[in-house]
Amino acid sequence: MELFRDYTVEQALQHTYLMDIVLAFTSLHSASNASEASAVHEHVAAALHYQNRSITEFNETQSLVKISEESFDPVCLMTSLHTVATLVAALTPATPGEQLEPIVEIVKRVRTYALCLMDMVKGHRVWAEKSELKRITDSPTVLRIEEGHSFSADQMRELTDAILANIDLDDSETPFFRTTLEQLEKSYANNNGRSVISWLVLVEPIFFQKAELGETAALVILACWGTLSVILEDIWWSKYAGRRIVEELSSQLNGCDSRWNGIMQWCYKQARIHGL
Hints:
It comes from Alternaria tenuissima. GO terms for molecular function: DNA-binding transcription activator activity, RNA polymerase II-specific. This is C6 transcription factor. The chain has helices at about 1-10, 15-35, 35-60, 70-90, 105-125, 125-130, 130-135, 155-165, 175-190, 200, 205-210, 215-230, 235-255, 260-270. The protein is mainly α. The radius of gyration is 19 Å and the shape is globular.
């Protein structure tokens, strides 16, 4: 992570739009750690200020339209940090009692940004493959070996099997959700057991429609994805966002069929959410 952080700062010193999104990201980190409501409000306001300024500067330089081999890395970094900042900001109440946007809407918006980043990388694959960012993210100091992880591949399979066992009681939904859970396992495997964030771009759009309609199985899977983000990632924003997602979904899942209680209690325990 140190290599990635240092490279991001190095690039930010050369591109104002990237520096401002870094400042937004830093402000949100401070907000996530703040205990006083006034401090949270101050940090969130600062984050939104920097994020909006970054977007304006990015558009003014037409960096996305005039992307080049030299600008490829900073544009990717800007898009990635903007995606994360959008997620965290949407999950952070600026004032006590503030009503957050529905979780599914937040996740859908983040998915859109992630898909844009994926398309950009695919569209400039030659630059992507030989970029400094690629070299850093593939380096041994960044990649970790699955062995010794707190959540093994066997545990992942046990989780998806437990979810499927409950869904099997509604036969018509089983095939779709089986595919959805296979995509979750694929995301885990593709990231060497250290992340499931890529599941957002693997899952079919209809999954989010089901979640918006309040289908319990879809909401439970989304809660499990949030929980896995807490367990697997060593990054503050992933742990924070995952925990907030589980917290917000708990109210929607309150009173659902008791067969889901075991899985949801596991989510609450892993995300360290007490009193549910």
